[in-house]
Write a structure and sequence with these properties.
The complex is a heterodimer of chains A (334) and B (68).
Chain A lengths: L1 H28 L12 H8 L2 E2 L11 E3 L2 H35 L11 E4 L3 H35 L1 H33 L7 H8 L17 H25 L6 H29 L6 H6 L2 E3 H7 L1 H10 L11 E4 L1
Helix pairs in contact in A: 3-8, 4-5, 5-7, 7-8, 10-11
Chain B lengths: L1 H24 L3 H4 L36
The chains are: A mainly alpha (334), B mainly alpha (68).
């Protein structure tokens, strides 16, 4: 009888050891897992996943997000940082340009025009420029409305009128984005070759483009300042395009991705607006004769020789006398 | 000057075309996300609250204030 009890007790103990083997093996593999010691904490979830999300059966999966602390960071950026950043960048640029104009005045030719016109831009290049410019102006006005409209415009026109305008501004922004993207692509294709940095750029930058000395450093078709504008437009435009597509098709990203796209789009837009203000200044009142190049496509030969002497030499050397070309050809005396 | 006018018209036509395609292919969120068990109303024009802060203000009786 006693030996039977001993066999049963030994068997029972053996069974317990056998059943506990998987648990023992698991705890040996991963000592951090202590299912009975602590449960998963909310802060752990936030730390690991950056948000607490459940599952919902309705189509809007974003409704399942319970906590997303980045949303508060984004709101701080959108409501506090972005308006100040945008105002400083854009108003700062306007003030700087106004001061420069008051102190320095417009950049003039060293010698008077000689009355010979030279073609500077082809019709396709001008069409591309003005297509992109028109689109960008609409995008800038409607885009700035997102940031400054409720602060500057709504107190003047009231919430109802402002809401209606903002809805239309949104439609305009989403629609003109496509003509801007097309213009951007065309510009990159048309002007990429002429905007590759060359040996004249360093000297141009050293002399600050001759803005302070009133002497024009030599340049090829585009000087270093124009190349900086070109690359700003191309790279800034790419950032705006990529982030804008995420915002136009928000289902391609989760809420974190949409917020990142908003950061990129807003900052790129503000910086691009400031850069374009400088571009508009130098292309109109800042430099005598510059606007002609993009309106008629032609400039005075003296203007071309003073601002882009290397380009004039290259074009004249390339073209046999009297032969018409798409650009760089002396067209007519007037 | 003709080039400028042509560019402006081209930009407007492209934008109008894009807008037309958008209006045919995209729907408002309240239309897309609605299901028989969840009914969503047209939120109107003002989507971000009465003061455009992104926060909904509530009145003393707890009702969400909207300007539209």
């Amino acid at each position: 009888m006693r030996w039977r009890r001993g066999v049963l007790a030994t068997g029972f103990v053996g069974l317990i050891i056998l059943c506990s083997m998987p648990a023992l093996a698991q705890s040996e593999k991963d000592p951090t897992i202590k299912p009975m010691m602590q449960s998963l904490q909310e802060q752990q979830l936030l730390k690991e996943l950056r948000k607490v999300e459940g599952r919902v059966t309705i189509p809007d999966s974003k409704a399942g997000i319970l906590e997303q602390p980045q949303g508060r960071e984004y709101q701080t950026f959108h409501e506090r940082i972005l308006p100040w950043l945008g105002a400083i960048v854009i108003v700062g640029m306007l003030v700087a340009l106004a001061l420069f104009y008051l102190v320095h005045g417009p950049i003039r030719l060293e010698r008077p025009p000689i009355g010979i016109r030279i073609r500077r831009f082809t019709p396709l290049e001008r069409l591309t420029h003005w297509l992109t410019a028109t689109s960008f102006i609409v995008l800038a006005i409607t885009g700035l409305n997102y940031v400054f409209g409720k602060r500057l415009l709504m107190p003047l026109v009231g919430p109802e009128a402002f809401s209606t305008w903002s809805l239309w501004a949104k439609y305009l922004h989403n629609s003109f984005a496509w003509s801007f993207m097309l213009g951007l692509l065309l510009m990159a294709v048309l002007w990429l070759r002429d905007n590759v940095p060359d040996r004249y750029d360093l000297e141009w930058l050293k002399q600050f483009g001759g803005f302070l000395s009133n002497r024009h450093p030599p340049a090829r078709r585009f000087n270093a300042g124009q190349k900086l504008i070109f690359w700003s437009v191309v790279l800034g435009g790419l950032a705006l395009t990529a982030s804008g597509i995420v915002l136009l098709f928000p289902h391609v990203a989760d809420i974190g991705g949409i917020q990142i796209a908003q950061y990129v789009h807003a900052v790129s837009g503000a910086v691009m607006t400031a850069i374009m203000l400088a571009h508009i200044y130098i292309g109109t009142v800042g430099m005598v004769g510059a606007l002609d190049a993009m309106v008629s496509g032609e400039v005075d030969l003296e203007w071309a020789k003073e601002h882009h002497p290397v380009w004039v030499e290259e074009e004249q050397a390339r073209m046999p006398e009297g032969q018409q070309s798409r650009k760089g050809t002396i067209l007519a005396e007037y | 000057m003709n080039i400028i006018m042509t560019s402006v018209v081209t930009a407007v036509l492209l934008a109008a075309g894009a807008g037309l395609i958008f209006s045919m292919t995209q729907k408002a969120v309240y239309e897309v996300q609605a299901v028989p068990s969840v009914r969503l109303d047209d939120p109107g024009h003002n989507l971000v609250g009465p003061d455009w802060s992104g926060l909904n203000r509530t009145s003393a009786n707890g009702k969400v204030l909207r300007s539209t």
